[in-house]
């Protein structure tokens, strides 16, 4: 059975996001391994060298995969799904690095439904607020 190319690209994006701050955190590593296992791609030749950190992923490469994943005319739904997937990874280590926040902001700008005239209604801000609220709630049960 051949893996869905979009799922492979999404996993490459998530691995790239984990690298975007310069190193993969242990929580991000565990999260990625769980996702790859859940998707049944542990033995996928394109994923293995990235997942097992045989080589780092540069930000430009990650952004290239984002462009490949979303296509030339990204839909709002595709942008939101990608933001949610990335937010899950970012939440896994409890911190949002500036490079991770920049990627989320860049994704927001690609969203055709995003109205720039609505400050505070940004999906990126909502996602980041949600990440922090979940993180804080785990610290104070």
From TrEMBL:
Origin superkingdom: Bacteria
Residues in Co-chaperone DjlA N-terminal domain copies: 13-106
Stored InterPro entries: DjlA_N, TerB-like
Protein name: Tellurite resistance protein TerB
Naturally occurring in which organism (per UniProt): Stenomitos frigidus ULC18
């Amino acid at each position: 059975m051949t893996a869905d190319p979009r799922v492979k690209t999404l996993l490459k994006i998530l691995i790239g996001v984990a690298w975007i701050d310069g190193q993969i955190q242990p929580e991000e590593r565990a999260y990625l391994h769980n996702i790859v296992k859940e998707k049944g791609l542990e033995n996928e030749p394109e994923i293995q060298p990235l997942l097992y950190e045989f080589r780092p992923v540069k930000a430009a490469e990650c952004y290239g995969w984002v462009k490949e994943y979303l296509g030339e005319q990204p839909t709002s739904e595709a942008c939101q799904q990608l933001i949610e997937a990335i937010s899950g990874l970012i939440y896994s280590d409890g911190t949002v690095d500036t490079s991770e926040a920049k990627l989320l902001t860049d994704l927001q700008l690609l969203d055709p439904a995003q109205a720039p005239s609505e400050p505070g209604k940004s999906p990126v801000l909502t996602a980041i607020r949600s990440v922090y609220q979940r993180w804080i709630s785990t610290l104070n049960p």
